[in-house]
Design a protein that fits this description.
mainly alpha, 3 helices, 56% helix
Amino acid sequence: MQFLYSTITYRPTLNYYEAQDQAFIKAITYNQPELILSSYENGIQTLATTLAANKSQDTGLPIDLREYYASM
């Protein structure tokens, strides 16, 4: 029994990162937070968590997220 496999590659016609950036810029510029899928508060918390994870990776030490949340 012989199987033939082929790979199909789909290429997007839209640059999703650019679309996200444009939606975010428009939401800020025109005060329309409904244009983005996350609240501004959630975005700040995600940023704080990401920055803390980066710092932890760089230093090899655990990070207290309260220090990041307090500064935002």
